[in-house]
Design goal:
With 196 residues, this protein is α/β, with parallel strands linked by helices. The protein contains seven helices and six strands.
Amino acid sequence: AGNVIIARGVQGSPPDEEMYAVQTELLGANPDIEVVTEIISFCDSAKAQEALLGTIASLPEVDGVVGCGEGLGAVQAFETAGRDAPVVAFAPSGRALKFWGEGNGAPGSVAVMSDPGQGVAALFAGINIHNGQDVPRVTIFPPVVVSEDARDEWIAATGDDEIASWQWTKELVDAQIQANIDGTVEEAELPPVPVR
């Protein structure tokens, strides 16, 4: 039970439409969660902070902001307004992770984003295809999801201007491709958190 704000990305864009459809489906299946407002954040912390500061005063207690990685700006807006910070999804940038690690954001917050390292994984997959190996046409590689338990490891591994990213090797990519072939993606071991 609780109140949430939906922070939309680039309204009308295919990724925003897809995320919004999933968000509204999940929230619709949980009628004890009330959407108290929606904002357009463009998945940007500064824009989320600005949009929220314009509406926070009129809102009841907010337990979460459902969005696309603008958690840093959302928390800053709540702090500026003198309100308790809700659960948010931070972008896994070094700055956002450090901000979160300094005690900002409610327990239960996460940092999540598609993995920039997937470009390396795609290159290894392409080489495998070129070499005649079996690679499923649709191959799933996990996003980076930073929980509170792993946050400090990721802070140590991610510079201020960097994004948390799996460090894909050929061996890890081959194992992920095999998990896709075997239908065991959900159980596949994640790459290790990088060490600086």
